[in-house]
Design brief:
This protein is of the alpha/beta class. The chain has one domain: Rossmann fold (3-Layer(aba) Sandwich), CATH 3.40.50.720. Strands 3-2-1-4-5-6-10 form a 7-stranded parallel sheet, sandwiched between helices. Strands 7-9-11 form a 3-stranded mixed sheet. Strands 8-12 form a two-stranded parallel ribbon. β1, α1 and β2 form a beta-alpha-beta unit. α3 crosses α4 and α8 runs parallel beside α11. It is globular, with a radius of gyration of 19 Å.
Length: 300
C-alpha cells in the first residue's frame, strides 16, 4: 500500500513510518521544510511539502494514497474534517492518533484510581480533554456512513527509542530534565496517581495490525502495564544519576508552571486496558519501562 502520514518527522509518525516500510508499504510524509524533506528521502519516505493549513495539498496527498495516518496533532479537529471529506466513499482507511489521557482525572497526585478503562468503558472526560473525545466521535462515526475505514489509536505514556528523525518521546525526557533542575527525581503531590505506558515499538506494531485487520469505527488503547509517578520517579532516581534521591513537588507549583497540561499529564490517573488491541491479535513484546530506564541515556 501507499500510505500518507502526517507527522512523519515526529516520534510517533517516524516510528510508524519505519515499521510500515519494513512491512513492504510505501510512505509519503508531510513536512514543512526542504531540509526535512531531504531527511525524509534518506529514510525512504517520499516527502509532501506543506502544513496542516494546506488543505488542498492534504486532500491531494490523501486521495493519491491507499490510506492516511494522522499523527501530527491530536488536537486539530479541522484537519480531520479535511481527511474525511477527501476520503469519502473511497473505502480507504483513516487512522487518527490521540492519547489515553482522555480518561484522566483530577487526582492531583493524591491517590491511585481503582478504575481501569477499556475501550467500552463509559466515562465523562474532564473539561480539558472533552475536545479530544469529540474528535474521537467525529472520526469513528464518520466511518461507515462516509465509506471510510476509520480508526482511532490512543496510546498511553510512550517510552523507548524512536525509529524516525526524532528518537525520544516527550514525557520521560521532560520529567528527567525537570528533575535535573530541582536536583532529584520529581513526582507531584504524593505521586500516587498511576498512568499506563507502552513501548514505541509495540505501538508501531499496533498501527500495522490496525491497517491489516481493524474494522471501521475502531478505538484502540495501547498499553503494556502501568506505574505511579512516584514509582517512575524512583526508577529515574536509581538509573539517571540521582543516587536514589526523589522529591515531591507541590501540585500548585506544577499547575503554575504547566497549567492543565501538566496537571492532567503528570498528576492524574489514566489507567487503560488495551482490550480491543489484544483481541485483534496485538501482543506487546518490547522491554518494560523499568528495564528500559536501566540503560536509557537521554539524548542518545
Amino acid at each position: 500500500m501507499k500510505i500518507f502520514i502526517t507527522g512523519a518527522t515526529g516520534y510517533i509518525g517516524g516510528s510508524v513510518a519505519e515499521r510500515l516500510l519494513r512491512a513492504g508499504h510505501s510512505i509519503t510524509g508531510l513536512v514543512r521544510t526542504e531540509e526535512k524533506a531531504s531527511q525524509l528521502k534518506q529514510l525512504g519516505i517520499e516527502p509532501v511539502l506543506g502544513s496542516l493549513s494546506d488543505h488542498d495539498i492534504l486532500t491531494t496527498a490523501s486521495q493519491q494514497a491507499d490510506g492516511v495516518i494522522h499523527t501530527a496533532s491530536a488536537d486539530h479537529e479541522g484537519i480531520l474534517e479535511v481527511f474525511i471529506a477527501a476520503l469519502a466513499k473511497s473505502g480507504k482507511f483513516l487512522i487518527h492518533t490521540s492519547g489515553s489521557g482522555i480518561v484522566n482525572d483530577q487526582a492531583d497526585g493524591e491517590y491511585a484510581s481503582p478504575t481501569r478503562f477499556n475501550e467500552d468503558t463509559c466515562f465523562e472526560a474532564v473539561p480539558f480533554r472533552q475536545p479530544r473525545v469529540r474528535m474521537h466521535r467525529l472520526v469513528r462515526e464518520a466511518g461507515i456512513p462516509q465509506g471510510i475505514r476509520t480508526i482511532v489509536i490512543a496510546p498511553s505514556m510512550i517510552y523507548g527509542r524512536g525509529r524516525g528523525l526524532h528518537k525520544e518521546s516527550e514525557q520521560l525526557p521532560q520529567l528527567i530534565a525537570f528533575s535535573r533542575q530541582v536536583g532529584a527525581a520529581a513526582y507531584f503531590g504524593k505521586g500516587l496517581n498511576r498512568y499506563s505506558n507502552v513501548h514505541i515499538a509495540d505501538l508501531a506494531d499496533l498501527y500495522l495490525l490496525a491497517i491489516e485487520k481493524a474494522p471501521s469505527g475502531s478505538l484502540f488503547y495501547a498499553e503494556n502495564g502501568d506505574a505511579s509517578f512516584k514509582e517512575i520517579a524512583e526508577l529515574i532516581a536509581s538509573t539517571q544519576g540521582f543516587g536514589g534521591k526523589t522529591v515531591s513537588i507541590p501540585i500548585e507549583a506544577l499547575i503554575a508552571q504547566a497549567g492543565d497540561l501538566g496537571r492532567y499529564g503528570a498528576a492524574a490517573n489514566s489507567i487503560v486496558e488495551a482490550a480491543n488491541a489484544r483481541r485483534l491479535g496485538w501482543s506487546p513484546k518490547a522491554e518494560p519501562l523499568a528495564r528500559f530506564l536501566e540503560s536509557y541515556v537521554p539524548g542518545q
